[in-house]
Structure formats: structure tokens, C-alpha cells
Amino acid sequence: MTIQILPEIVAAQIAAGEVVERPASVVKELVENSIDAAASDIRIEIAEGGRALIRVNDNGHGINSAEVETAFVRHATSKLTTIEDLNTINTLGFRGEALHSIAAVSRLTLTTRHSQEKSGSQVQIVGGKFTDQRKIGVPPGTIITVEELFFNTPARLKFLKNVTTERRHITTMVTNYALAYPNIKFTLYHDKREVLRTYGTGNLFDVLAKALGADTQRHMIEVTPQPPKRPDLPPIQVHGYVSTPDQSRSNRSHITLFVNGRAIKDTSLAYAVTQAYHTLLPKGRYPIAVLMIDLPPEEVDVNVHPTKAEVRFRSADAIFSAVQRAVRSAVVAQAPPPAIQYSAQQNTGHNSPAPGWQQRRESLLPPVREAAARPAHPVSQQQKLNLELERPGDFGQQLPPAAPTAPLAPADDFESIPDGPQPPARPRTLPMLRVLGQVGAAYIVAEGPIGMYLVDQHAAHERILFEEFMAQQVQQKTLSQKILIDATLEVSLATIALIEENMTVLTKIGFELEPFGGQTLRIRAVPAILAGGDPAEAMHIIVEDLENNAQPGQATLEEQIILRVCKAAAVKAGQVLSLTEMQSLIQQLERCESPHTCPHGRPTLIYISGDQLAREFGRT
Ligand code: ADP
Ligand code: MG
């Protein structure tokens, strides 16, 4: 092929790819233009996740009728003229690429009236070509309507995710601007349904309720600007809100950072926020944060990335430390030092049980049937049954039926055997074990025919619940447990979108959820194994997982949620169990298909054979 200069339209379509990756990028560029135009009211309408329609309507200063066409020329901008201007830029846009790019890949209509002019103008551009231009009577401000995005770039269209995913990206994007500009009124409609409305009160805390849900907002603490550490450092102001340490999340995605009013991604600064919680958060947990970092424009290079999502700092270390200091002082002022929490736990010798735990364990552990009949394992069987380690699966069947003997624990520790038909027992995969006690409120010590077993109670229970759940799924039994007292959850808009996106899977697993207008989610039913627990707490855990694997349609998503449900429902390490509860748990484990590992693949038990014990004690 000969070298030739691409036709302008093709070049524009290619260049558009950099700026306009998906509908949310269009929303971002248009909203930024409205903010730059000093709008105090921005209304965004979306249809079909932005594929069919994106309309941004603002009451900003508008565009002069003489400049309307120019606005669509590549690199046409009213925001800077020389490269030096970049050093002092205080607008969100400056590259002059957005309108040009968006117009190249959609059917765009611009309606605008400059605040100093008597009438407005309207232009239409289809795939980068002006098709219509006229004068029009409209109020001051700008309306940009983008229809059929990517209609002429089928490759791009193919890569778009489903409507719910695109909707979620747009909601997150607009919510971020609402946070960064609490003095601007934002309204967002998806398919004519209002999903976000802020009132432009200038109060960030009001907007937080919308962004995070009222339940989380209540737990946010204010970060106030700190006096500079040294006068020679650039003036860096950090303010916003961060979560109390008891409101952690499993990933960093809840740390939202703004630099000079621009939402940015910066792993190092997200780390600074997390670092500020040092010793206050468990490992692998992250805070929620909405932080505004304001610094002189010359301190930050915003021109690193076409979508300006990443920035570069001149004094990165100073900013890191300013963020860390501001967050740390807010958190420390609010949170009790960890040592106090520790000593409270040490008094009881174990972690305090999670709320709802009492009910939960009653509902989780079925009545003991065999417990009263469990024999002590006569030592004499040891040699005979030495195959156990090698063939754990076969071993059980060789055991003689349990002979009734006197109970080994006080009689009141055992529950009576319920009457009525029992479901057929599943084959044994572990030998019959006799529970001796609990170590560290985390491990059950049991005796087998030829040795000792240490069972991780949490891992074992996870395994039991997982197999139970999977068996029910195979039989397509109803797994749901209706919730009698209405449970509602106040969540972020993004969470509502995420749940809607994954509704089919959640319903299949046994959740019955109903978006209840705005940001309220009503939980009508949960998987039966979660009955007795706190449905809201369980839902939080599931949402976290969905966020971590926000890939709808994943084949394994369903299984991942099931794993999560089992984890949430399982007995925790730190819970003191009664002998009956331990016996019940062990009996169920004995009949699991794969009793040796938890569903995540970690061991559920450690076995020490009689021989090994004898060796350890120098008896052989
Ligand atoms: P940039 O924002 O980088 O300058 P754009 O392509 O987004 O580039 O916009 C080009 C120009 O069009 C802007 O510089 C601005 O003058 C004008 N413009 C775009 N949107 C609006 C709006 N909503 N209100 C007023 N002017 C606008
Ligand atoms: Mg712009």
C-alpha cells in the first residue's frame, strides 16, 4: 500500500478513539465543558446506557453564534493559547479535542445561546459533517445531544458492554462531578428515570449521602485542611471525608480523589490514604474516602493522558505526605486507639461474636443425632485401621456401627434426637470423630480411630455450607428465606446499578432484592443459609465481591457469590462453640464430599496419626 494522508473524517474517527472510549467518556467531556462554562445547573439525560442518547443541558455562558462551527474544529479551544498557559490552567478542558471527537462518531446536535446574545444557534453534525445550521430562540446556556454513538465505527460499538454496565459507568462519573462541585446542581436521568439529584448547596456532606448511601455517609468523618508542614513546600490543601475504621471495604475502589476539581486515578495517593489507617484497619481492608486535593496549577501536570484521568505532580512526596497527614489526623481524632479494643477482647479471651451470631448458629447447626451414641475410639483399633491417611475416603465404611455407650460429656450438652423420618445419610468421607474440645475459639480438637484431628471451624463450616448449597442448586430447590422484618439498605447509586446488573445471578442464588426508589434497596429474601444473620451485612459482602469482579456474564460469578455467601454464613474463628455445636459441625463434615479442604482450597483439618504422636513422645 502506498503512503497517503488519511481523509480528515477517518483521522477524526481514529483520534476520537483516544478521547471517546465509551458513553461515559462523552458524558465526562460534556459535563466538564458545562463546568468550565460556569454552569450552576447541569442536567444529564441518558437513554440505553448512552448508546441511544446522551444529552447534557447547562445554564453556563454558552457559545457565541460566530464561534459555533469553530468549536468543532480539532484543537479549537477557548481555554488556552500558549503552552505556558497550561501551567496556570484552571479549567477542566484545554485540549480542544472533545467536541471534534464526539461529533466524528455520532449524530450530534448543539443548541446554544451566549449569555450576551439575543438569540441562539443550533447545528447538526453527522459523523463529523455539518448537516444543518440555524438561528433559534433559546434561553442562555448550552444543550448538546449525542445520538447513536459509534454508529459509524462498528468496531468500537462491538466493544461496548451491556446497557447496565455503561449506565453504571455514567452514574459513577456524574456522581464524582457532583462530589467535586457541590455548589452545582446536578440531575441525572437514565431512560427518563431520575437517578441522581443534587441541590447545589455547596455542602459536600449532603452530596456524600447520594454518592455513598446514607448508611455509609453517617460513618464518614471530616478531613479538614492542615497547616503546611514547612513554609518552603507548595501550599497543598486536603479536605473531604473518610470512613471510620469500622467501615472498611475489600478494595481501593472506594477511595475517590480529586485534584483541583478533577477526579484522578493515583495508586500512590490511594496508598497514602490507606497508610493513614495504619494499625486501625485489618490487613487487606481499605477505607472509603472522598478527598479534594487543591494545589497551585503549576504543581500538577494534567496533560499526561488524553482523558486526563492521570496527572503528574511536581512534588509528589509532599502531596503524599499532606494527604496522609490530613487523613491520619482526622482518623486518629475520631477512632479509639486499637490497644483499647484489644484489651477488651483479651478479657473474654476471644473476639466478641458478630451481631446476629446467636441466631445464626442456631439456624445453621441442625440438631445432633449421633452425638449421644458416639463411642470413644478404643486404642486397640489403631494398628488395624492404619490405612486412614492414605485412603481417607474408604475408611469410614469399614467402621463398625456405632455402639451406644454412655455419653462422654455431661448429658445436658446433648439435644434429644428428633422424631420423624430422617433424610438418607450421605456416605462417610471421614471416620467417625469424637469431639474433645476447642482451642483458641478457632479449632476443634477431635479424636479419630487412630489419631488426632485439629479442625479449622470456619474452613470446615464453609465446606459444609458450600456442599449443601451446591446440592440444593443441582436439585433446583428453593433456597430463599423470606425476611420477615423488612431490611433495607442505603447504598450508592453505583451499587444499585451493580446489583441490577447482576440481578439474575443473585435471584438464582436466593436473594430477592428490590430497588426501592433512589438509593434504597429492599432485601426481601436471602439464601436460606444466611437466615438468622444480618441480611444487610451479608449484602454488603456480596456487593464488595461484585465490585471486585465487575465482569458481568462471567461463568464463575455465580460460584463466587455462593462462596461468599458461605463465607459470610460460616462460623467465624473466635466464636466459642458448645460441645453440641462442635459435634454437629464435625458430623456434617464427616459426610462432605471433599472434607479435607474448604471451598477456597485451604485445609480444613490437620491429622496427627497415633504413630506420629508416639514418635513425638519418643515412644517408638
Ligand atoms: P476544550 O474543552 O478542551 O476547550 P472542547 O472540544 O471540549 O475543548 O470544547 C471546545 C470549545 O467549545 C471550548 O473551549 C468552549 O469554548 C466551547 N464549549 C464547549 N462546550 C461548551 C459549553 N457547554 N458551554 C460553553 N462553551 C462550550
Ligand atoms: Mg472540553
What features would you highlight for this structure?
620 residues; alpha+beta; five-stranded mixed β-sheet; elongated; binds adenosine-5'-diphosphate; binds magnesium ion
Description of the molecule:
It is a single chain. This protein has 620 residues and is an alpha+beta fold. It contains 19 helices and 22 strands. Strands 5-4-3-6-2-1-7-8 form an 8-stranded mixed beta sheet, covered by helices on one side. The chain is elongated, with a radius of gyration of 31 Å. Residues 337-373 and 379-422 have low confidence and may be disordered. Magnesium ion (MG) binds next to helix 2. Magnesium ion (MG) binds at residues 29, 32-33, 93, 98.
> Which radius of gyration do the C-alpha atoms yield?
31 Å
Bound molecules: adenosine-5'-diphosphate, magnesium ion
Shape: elongated
Task: Please indicate the percent range of residues in DSSP E strands (runs of 2 or more).
Answer: 15-25%
Oligomer: single chain
How many beta strands in the DSSP annotation?
22
Spatially, the strands of the biggest sheet line up as: 5-4-3-6-2-1-7-8
The helicity comes to 25-40%
State the low-pLDDT regions, or none. 337-373, 379-422
Structural class: alpha+beta
Q: Could you describe the largest sheet, including whether it forms a barrel?
A: 8 strands, mixed
